[in-house]
Amino acid sequence: MRISKDLPPMLRELPPRPGRPPRIDVRYPCLQQEDVSPPNLREELLRRAAGLTGVEIRPTELSVPAMALVLDESLAEGQPEAFIRGREFALIRTDGSVHVPLMPEWGEPVLQKGWACIHPLVRYMAGVLPPQNLIAYAPRDERELETVWNIVQAGYCYARGWIVEPDQEGGHP
Q1: Alpha-carbon span 124 to 128, nearest angstrom
Q2: Which of 59, 101, 117, 136 has the fewest C-beta atoms under 10 angstroms from its C-beta?
Q3: Do 89 and 101 meet the contact criterion of CB atoms below 8 Å apart?
Q4: Best CA proximity match to 103, nearest among 3, 2, 30
């Protein structure tokens, strides 16, 4: 299926994120300053991401303490704005937060429900990153992990150039 501006299934029922948003350092590499993830939740995000078709996990090419989700070249059919660098479509950072581009129509509910902020480099260094670049806040518990995982899956769909309707088993990508 080609890319659609319609909200993908994994973003349709986002709950509001409880509490106030954590501070994100405006200085590069723009890490989350509080409410970081316990290591087991970050590791679970990486484990799940490794199970996505055509995704390789490796250190990012950028000078950011993060592991990159890199899409196989044959599957990277998304528009250029769907990628951070090369075929990197998301960065799972050491604090547990996730740098992920989303189509603006997809990112809007993520922002409105309090799950992410626009990457500070978009705001403070115009032109460095396209406005689709978000930082999804680090999950603090298992419930939040599920929501952040949905956001990562939406980034995967954006990078693939399509959305996935839940299959007969009820799964996502």
Answers
A1: 9
A2: 59
A3: yes
A4: 3
Cβ-contact 46, 55 below 8 angstroms: no
Give the SS3 label for residue 91. strand
pTM of the model: 0.91
Burial of 23-44, coded b for 16+ CB within 10 Å and e otherwise, reads: ebeeeebbbbeebbbeeebbeb
CA distances from 43 to 38, 49, 93, 159, 164 (A): 9, 10, 11, 22, 25
Cis peptide before 29 (omega within 30 of 0): yes
Chain centroid to Cα 85, Å, comes to 14
> For 64-83, how does the pLDDT look when each residue is reduced to its tens digit (9 = 90+)?
999 999 999 999 999 999 99
What's phi and psi for 32, nearest 5 deg?
-70, 135
